[in-house]
Amino acid sequence: MPVHSLIARVQFDLQWFAGQDCLAVCYKHPAKFSLIDESIPQEGDPIVAWNWQIDNQNFNTSSTNVDLANSGSYGVSLEVTTELGCIATLSLNDYLTVYDLPSPNFITEPEEINNCDKTIKIINFSTGYDSLSWNFGDGVVSSEDTSDYYTYSEVGNYIIKLNLVNEFGCE
Predict the structure, then answer these.
(1) pTM
(2) pLDDT tier, 131 (very low <50, low <70, confident <90, very high otherwise)
């Protein structure tokens, strides 16, 4: 499972620079992000404390791994404190986004073919997708998005696979 990184940079003249506008992933159980602080304090005043806040979770290290259990957008806040007591905070609303995966669901009628009837009807109940690809298990691939009939050339055991992709590229 990929781990996505946040790089937060700060100079203590309070000019903050985020490494990216936002990070987004497709929802897996759970979505994982790696957060890394690359703040640049004033010379002679090193950072001694970190406080990350993400989805009601607090982390007190310069880098941390975050698991997000649900799809949605999440704000990220980082407060750093230097040895001399200087405090700087960066808050980014909706910085981490976790998208839902498409939900595949289809049936075939009949469930088995025979020598007399090698045709099946495919009924697609899938949701949350923008494009799809069917693999009928016999070397034929189709991107038709309809309840349709498919006829096999010979009787056999075939595994039909359905690949769905949503607008965010989640499969």
Answers:
(1) 0.67
(2) very high
